[in-house]
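Notes from hallway chat w/ T.B., transcribed later so I don't forget. T.B. wanted the structure written out for a chain they're using in a teaching module, and asked if we could keep both sequence and structure tokens in one place. Agreed to drop them here.
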Amino acid sequence: MKKLFFISLIALITMLTGCASSSFYNLPAKEFKDIDYTFDVKYQKVRNINIAYIDEGKSDKVLLLIHGLGTSAKSWIKNIPTLSKEYRVIAVDLPGYGKSDKGFYKYSMSWNAQVLTEFLTELKIDKATFIGHSMGGQISLHAALNFPERVDKLVLISPAGFEKFTEGEGDWMKAAFTVDLVKETTTRNIAVNLDANFYETPADADFFVTDRIQIKGASNFEDYCYAVTRNVTGMIDEPVLEKLKTIEKKTLILFGENDGLIPNVYLHGGFTKDIANFAHEKLTHSELVFVPECGHMLQFEKYEIANDEIIKFLKK
């Protein structure tokens, strides 16, 4: 088994990614709008917030892909081509991230879930399968709890929200995780953090780091940092573990057997399988799949397995 290294607080909580390389140190700054997503990007205004999104495929069956903390819709680039062959696939940049507007929004998990349901309304979509990675999984659970009529099924990939934090642990994380901490993360630390997300880092994962380094020079980078910190607070303040038993939606849970971020290695330690199995038992209509030799960024590291499992689940 690949040795797991202790990583910095920012890597542990934000799930930002990077790989150490001297070529990363002289990258030119870029605005968020100039980052290449490889797919066309559209925009829809919701609550006076421009939401950026990728929209591929034609079908009455809609899949809404929701990224994790610190990332963007681009984290789904290995899933969109396959899934869009049979479904309409919409990958969003959450408010504060990627090419979407940034500002002093609420950024709670329930707020994000409500914005996404209003986003679907603007696109004239009644219902979608919510597919969320990490924080996106916790947002998807809030959508199922608060707006069940808008959720068809749930796919939770390495989801946040399954782990219990005491009040003291939560207060410590919220106090420690500041805008300055995100803003001042060095190029080297951004790069070194990549391995925390993977069991074996794919050769084509460099963009996670290069994009993150380049946006440090964006004019609204500090607003992005604010969004990240507020989302950390949102995840801690709106746990879902005790509410899982009330969710009636058919749910697929995917976890890498070698997830290095869940559970929190600093505060809890333990095993990913224990966290996943406990939540699986509470979600009455759930299926749980563990992917061997795979870390936290499952949809990227083992994208072929992820795509196959998602399609198999949706066809049942």
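Follow-up for T.B.: The longest helix spans residues 221-237. Might be a good example for the class.
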